[in-house]
Write a structure and sequence with these properties.
Elements (H helix, E strand, L loop, with lengths): L5 H22 L4 E5 L13 E7 L4 H7 L5 E3 L9 E6 L5 E7 L6 H10 L2 H12 L6 H25 L1
Parallel strand pairs: 2-5
Antiparallel strand pairs: 1-2, 3-4, 4-5
């Protein structure tokens, strides 16, 4: 794994997001299209890729997945696939992934995680430290460590809510 500071990649990811958002909204007018992932979080280090959340109604979910390949995406096979979540990856040279999510499902956690880090610079620093500690690791090993961190954040939130 290799990571870049925000000033090296975020502007390019933001420009790319605007283009993809426009194209997705043309194809799927009712979709909620949001920039997620590290590139959407100020000061976050990243691999330099772009993640896009595409929220749709459950009844449209499979139809949307069938239509997105017209924009240059294919289903990502080495990741979680659920009735309310499908990850797609770009077939072009752009390093872009889509998280197609049924509105109201547990998989809206992509937005929750983004928003939590956007409002807490200390968490961004923790996240950056975690990532920089993974330089040179395999993608699989890095994903496991990152997932454990994200789960810990959600577990601590649940504990905080129970204490209130």
């Amino acid at each position: 794994m290799k990571f870049y500071p925000a000033e090296k990649y975020q502007a390019a990811c933001n420009e790319l997001f605007v283009r993809y958002e426009r194209d997705i909204k043309k194809l799927i007018p009712n979709a909620r299209v949001e920039h997620v992932g590290a590139s959407s979080i100020p000061s976050a280090v990243s691999k330099g890729d772009l993640d896009i959340f595409v929220g749709v109604e459950l009844g449209e979910f499979e139809d949307v997945i069938e239509r997105l390949p017209t924009l240059g995406f294919k289903e990502k096979l080495d990741t979680l696939r659920a009735l309310e979540l499908c990850m797609l990856e770009s077939t072009s040279s752009d390093d872009v992934a889509l998280q197609v999510v049924a509105n109201g499902s547990e998989f809206e956690c992509f937005l929750t995680f983004r928003d939590k880090l956007r409002t807490n610079p200390a968490l961004v620093q923790q996240y950056n430290t975690l990532k920089m500690g993974c330089v040179g690791w395999s993608q699989e090993k890095y994903r496991k460590k990152k997932s454990a961190y994200i789960c810990l954040l959600y577990t601590s939130d649940a504990a905080d809510e129970e204490d209130s």
